[in-house]
Amino acid sequence: MKTFIYDRPKTVTEAISLLQKYKGKATILAGGTDLFVDLKKKVKYFPHIIDIKGIPPLESVGFDSNGNLQIGPLVTMQALSTHPGLLHGYESLSKAASKLGSWQIRNRATIGGNICRASPSGETLPALLCLNAELKLVSVEGERRVPLKNFYWEPGKSAIMIDEMLSEIIIPRIYTKSYGTYKKLAVREAMDLAVVGIAIVGWLDPRSEFFKDIRIGLGSVAPTPIRAKKAEAFLTGKKIEDDLIAEAASLASTEAQPISDVRGSSWYRSDMVKQLVEEAIQEMVTHLRDRR
Amino acid sequence: MKRKIRVKVNETVYEAFVEPHLTLVDFIRDHLNLTGTKKSCDRGNCGACTVLMDGNPINSCLVLAVEANHKSLLTIEGLLANGDLHSIQKAFVEFGAIQCGFCTPGMILTMKALLDQTPNPTEEQIKKALAGNLCRCTGYAKILQAVKAAKSFLKG
Fold it and tell me: Global pTM?
């Protein structure tokens, strides 16, 4: 790697002032599992690297007094995948985190990095979309909150400005009787990007006969991760039937706009969206009914 | 501009002045002369560069030496105790789980971390833990056998 100037600020204030000072010439270093690959391949170069791992509050994950989940950008995939509090609905996020890369990568890769990398196949992104995550972005100018659903523009490009830093991820409180899951189709069992990634979060009525709320997140099948809003609207309030679920899965499939690449053709991906959405919804229904 | 780091490797504390862009694998191999850790893909794909940092496996090719400041590392050399091989190492030898040996240090360290954290892992858990360590020689079968034997031995 080409050499660079390395800073390790002790506070967020210090970090954002460095970002402003080196405007456009600096990048944030968190886990490094993506950045260093790009630096080594010479796909990217930054004369300044700002390592934010010296700011402990950025590593915290927990629920506030209102039951909202607050996650610091430095929380690793490993920490997310094993966190005992990520149940009912939040499992979509912990399951997704557990599928990223390898154990070695998960011990370093962070949720902040996964979000800011803005990859259409970002492992945690479909689940975060289902959970209506909101991002806190800070700079010397102040703080702003951006819903994740408005954060992505195109592959690799997000709404974050060059002098901004992601300082927190907020997930609004979710109904305790919800269920979440993440399904990843990939060529390999591990160490692979998703060909198709599906996240589901939802809950049923007290008698488990109707879909009360259902969120369907799709990854790797559009320029950005997306929610299958038409499929969601189609299912909400309806009586649970196999045919209904199959039809919703088909609808979700029409909302995807996959490309053909080395990992799969667009028609295959569309087909797999339908398959996996159907499986995921059935899994949710079975799980919620068994739980009663 | 060089930065001072203080890092514990296999129970010995080292102090060094390093360039920021120096990766941990290069620091371990070239500065500390601990060449048991291998550099293969240099991209975090193969796991040959695996070392344990504070007990957890990481790809040392994707970590800077400066990031290891104040950390505690275990490399394959650190498994030797009074000239004796660790049980996992003995199992690898006994079960023929080593051919060219290049993946071996990484494999063994990942398995040490797994068995330290999960003393009785299922086959599924072993495979998932080993997913980041590639072997081109053995086909993994002997490695799995060795790990299962080591697990039984360590449990006592």
Answer: 0.97
